Amino acid sequence: MDVPKRDPMSIVDKIMRHVSGVLIGCCLLATMPLYAEGSPAIPAFTAHYELLRNGKMKVGEVKRTTAIQENGAITFESYSKTTGLAALFIKDKITERTSFILDGNTIQPQDYLYDRKGGKRSRVVKLNFDWAKKSVTNAINGEPWQMEISPGTQDKLSYQLQLMIDLQANLTAFNYPVADGGTLKEYRFTLLGEETIKTPMGKIETIKIKRERAADSKRKTTIWFAKSLHYLPVRIKQGKSDDEFVTLEIKKAEGI
Questions:
Q1: pLDDT averaged over consecutive 10-residue blocks of the chain (256 residues)?
Q2: What are residue 10's phi and psi, to 5 degrees?
Q3: 3-state SS string for the chain
């Protein structure tokens, strides 16, 4: 049954469909830095975020985990779910996972998984990167096919850590080819400047950036990265207008 356009819960459904693409947070299990010698740090930390509608009503939570595999690759996993009143209407739970290696300062994804379950829009997407052949195998609900990729291509999760690395390198423009929706899309971000914001963790000095909207998108995305926390994202705001938006707000962080 379709949700009425102005039903408050319709925005929650949109959040759960797009949360993995724009909401950035991490929950790293290890107690050692996850980076190659000479590369910018991806520090070990734990972070928890609340998902708020219009800055007030809590509608979800996001938790992410990173661990080192036996072969030396790093696994970055995200888990998102609705909470409170929203969970009565939208029961979807989303697990996202990327496995990658570091090539100098560049993240090189190996495998990617998107698994949505619990609601009517169940969906499983798997990507396997073959860098020798410069191709990626994309399997959606068990139907695989291939496409070509360019050097530096990211998946919809790995580019988020790449942003943290590039901010540490003092870059001011950020462009990433991303395997997204069966095509190779260009994710572009622009530096807006510095801003001190209030969070549940107190006042934090941040670097503020925005994502340049694609021609077919009306959503605006702004991200605040904490300078003192290895550029960990502490707030992400997304919406089509100032009247309807969602915010991912950090609750606490440990080990960073």
A1: 43 47 37 51 75 86 80 84 68 89 92 88 91 93 88 94 92 92 90 95 95 79 92 90 85 79
A2: -65, -35
A3: CCCCCCCCCHHHHHHHHHHHHHCCCCEECCCCCCCCCCCCCCCCCEEEEEEEECCCEEEEEEEEEEEECCCCCEEEEEEEEECCCHHHHCCCEEEEEEEEEEECCEEEEEEEEEEEECCCCCEEEEEEEECCCCEEEEEECCEEEEEECCCCCECCCHHHHHHHHHHHCCCCEEEEEEEECCEEEEEEEEEEEEEEEEECCEEEEEEEEEECCCCCCCCEEEEEEEHHHCCEEEEEEEECCCCCEEEEEEEEEECC
Query: In the structure encoding, which two tokens stand for residue 8, read together?
Result: 């408050």
Extract the tokens encoding 231: 């550029």
Domain ranges of the chain: 10-254
Reading the block at residue 28, the tokens are: 């790293």
pTM of the model: 0.80
- The pLDDT value given to residue 63: 82
